[in-house]
Write a structure and sequence with these properties.
The chain contains four helices and five strands. The chain is of the alpha/beta class. The protein is globular. The N and C termini lie far apart (about 30 Å).
Length: about 140
Amino acid sequence: MDRVPILKIGDMLLVSIQIDLQDQSVLALQEDLAEKISTTGASGVVIDISAVEIVDSFIGRMFATIASLSKLFDAETVVVGMRPAVAITLVELGLTLGDVRTALDLERGIKVLGTLTARRNGSTAGPDEGFLPVTG
């Protein structure tokens, strides 16, 4: 079974899903992410699903579960790169991502995460402070 890599960038984690998700790989991702947030003390998680072409109800629910899990470890979550077909499927299945924030791409997701964590921490810092710039 392939594992989804989790990269630490500053005080956030980047989860870039580049494999076809199977039930077991999503469960492994949950465990790996919980461990990584716990050991690093990350304040935020960006989950890039731009390579995900198809979701079923289990995988859709797992995205919301992963975000809830991150929240338990005091980390905000932003899902980026959702394809239109994936969004349509989630709506057709009647699934929501709960309190999970979304953004069109990684750059916007990092900005959203920066704003969320700054607001949570009572900081007046701008959304880009504390994160590596993304150029494209």
